[in-house]
Design goal:
The chain is α/β, with parallel strands linked by helices. It folds into four domains: 106 residues, Nucleic acid-binding proteins (OB fold (Dihydrolipoamide Acetyltransferase, E2P), Beta Barrel); 139 residues, Succinyl-CoA synthetase domains (Rossmann fold, 3-Layer(aba) Sandwich); 81 residues; 41 residues, no CATH class. It has 13 helices and 13 strands. The chain has a five-stranded mixed beta barrel. It has a five-stranded parallel beta sheet with strand order 7-6-8-9-10, with helices on both faces. It has a three-stranded antiparallel beta sheet with strand order 11-12-13, with no helix packed on it. Helix 7 links the parallel strand 8 and strand 9. The two termini are 39 Å apart.
Length: 448
């Protein structure tokens, strides 16, 4: 084979042509992008609004860019040394032949990992039935002793003690001190729950702490704590963080309260309401007793009148004895009836307290809040999917656009009448021509 034949069969690239080929190969191999985790360095934010940086680990690094639209959606400011989780498309910057990633989403790596761990544990425990509504117990209407599992120095315990003391001073409150944050907190919280349940001292337990970040509340997303709440022999109320915070402990507990103060209000009745209810019952009982005594007195007066009309002394004496006996029996009967009615009123009062509408409305409000959150999360995920699909369609349309062809190095030539020149014979020597490029255009004249 001659050298000329071998040369004719070679495929010879220019640097730009080779870079385009490599770019197309990368984009075809990974069309949907990749998730990548690493440390930020060399972060730059020029006036254009784009973000340029390097993502590295202990052994390698890669240059990255996040364009203005995606960067405007960031919920934090990327800085050097920050550990992040990123979704990006793999590509090649043709002008310099550099391998790069173009990011469209970025989040702090620790927060994302905790959220994924939370969702995985929630799904697993939910599948085991720990969250089932049919296993949740009603709270006692009048708890005599309440165990509060929390930090003894936090603001939450002060709020709980204040509300319980104001609403129901007769309820005895015991603080069961545990750390509520840090690596040592979960085993100590679980151990305290097991000990309190086994002691038999408490009518209900409250697990609580103040608000914080997902990492601050992580002790209450621990599996051991969840199983200790599930195994408790007495009802457990969970009030962890603020109203928008949800933990695994909230889902396992028999009742979840939005805040520590709200939990205290759910645990005990209001003494003012009880006093008003007892006053009404006392008034009703006094009215009933007065009416019965008046009726008995009227019957006695009528009997006395009949006795006086008959006059015989012996019969009068017998009737007087019988009247006295009947009066004693009446008094005993009224006293017994009053006791029975009082006991019945006490039972009705207890049943009424156990079926108070507030106890049924609160879970409905919680369920409604959860459904609202799930709706908002679902809408956000749907919008994100539609946005990704729209971006993909835009890239597909751009790929078949004539402008995309120009960006790959081609040009369109127009004659003096702005008609497209398709053949060299259509142009005469000396004609002025306009050449449209990928960026801008130039004016030329045919010389030969």
């Amino acid at each position: 084979m001659s050298a000329s034949d071998e040369s004719a069969r070679r495929e010879i690239f220019t640097p730009s042509g080779l870079n385009r080929l490599v770019r197309d190969l990368l984009e075809d191999a990974l069309p949907m992008g990749v998730w990548i985790e690493g440390e930020l360095s060399n972060v730059a934010r020029p006036a254009s609004g784009h973000v340029y940086f390097t993502l590295k680990d202990a052994s390698a690094q890669v240059r990255c860019a996040m364009f203005r639209t995606a960067a405007s959606r960031l919920r934090f400011r990327p800085t050097d040394g920050m550990h992040v989780l990123m979704r990006a498309k793999v590509g090649l910057y043709e002008a310099r032949g550099e391998f790069q990633l173009v990011a469209d989403h970025m989040e702090p790596a620790g927060e994302g990992a905790l959220q994924r761990e939370f969702e995985q544990l929630k799904a697993r425990l939910g599948a085991e039935g720990l969250f089932d509504a049919d296993r949740k117990r009603e709270l006692p209407a009048f708890p005599a002793r309440i165990g509060v599992v929390t930090s003894p120095s936090g603001a939450a315990v002060r709020d709980v003690i204040s509300v319980l003391g104001r609403r129901c001073p007769l309820a005895e409150v015991e603080i069961l001190p545990v750390p509520v944050q840090g690596r040592e907190a979960p085993p100590l919280i679980a151990a305290m729950l097991r000990s309190a349940s086994a002691s038999g001292r408490y009518d209900v337990l409250l697990v609580t702490r103040g608000g914080g970040s997902l990492e601050d509340l992580w002790a209450f997303n621990d599996e051991a704590v969840a199983r200790a709440i599930h195994a408790s022999a007495v009802p457990v109320v969970s009030a962890v963080g603020h109203e928008v915070d949800f933990t695994i402990a909230d889902f396992v507990a028999d009742l979840r309260a939005a805040t520590p103060s709200a939990a205290a209000e759910l645990l005990v009745p209001d003494r003012n309401d009880l006093e008003r209810r007892l006053d009404r019952l006392r008034q009703r009982m006094a009215t009933v007793m007065s009416r019965r005594l008046q009726a008995a007195a009227q019957r006695a007066d009528q009997a006395q009148t009949r006795l006086n009309a008959q006059r015989p002394q012996a019969r009068l004496a017998r009737d007087a004895q019988r009247l006295a006996s009947l009066r004693r029996r009446l008094e005993l009967s009224i006293d017994q009836s009053n006791r029975l009615r009082r006991a019945s009123l006490d039972r009705l009062q207890a049943r009424l307290g156990a079926h108070h509408p507030r106890l049924r409305l609160t879970p409905s409000h919680l369920r409604l809040a959860e459904l609202r959150k799930r709706l908002a999360d679902g809408m956000a995920r749907r919008i994100e999917r539609d946005r990704a699909r729209l971006a993909q369609q835009a890239r597909t349309m751009h790929a078949v656009s004539p402008l995309a062809t120009l960006e790959r190095g081609y040009a369109i030539v127009f004659d003096q009448r702005d008609a497209v020149v398709r053949r060299a014979t259509d142009v005469a020597v000396g004609d002025r021509l306009r050449v449209m490029l990928g960026e801008g255009e130039i004016r030329v004249r045919r010389e030969d």
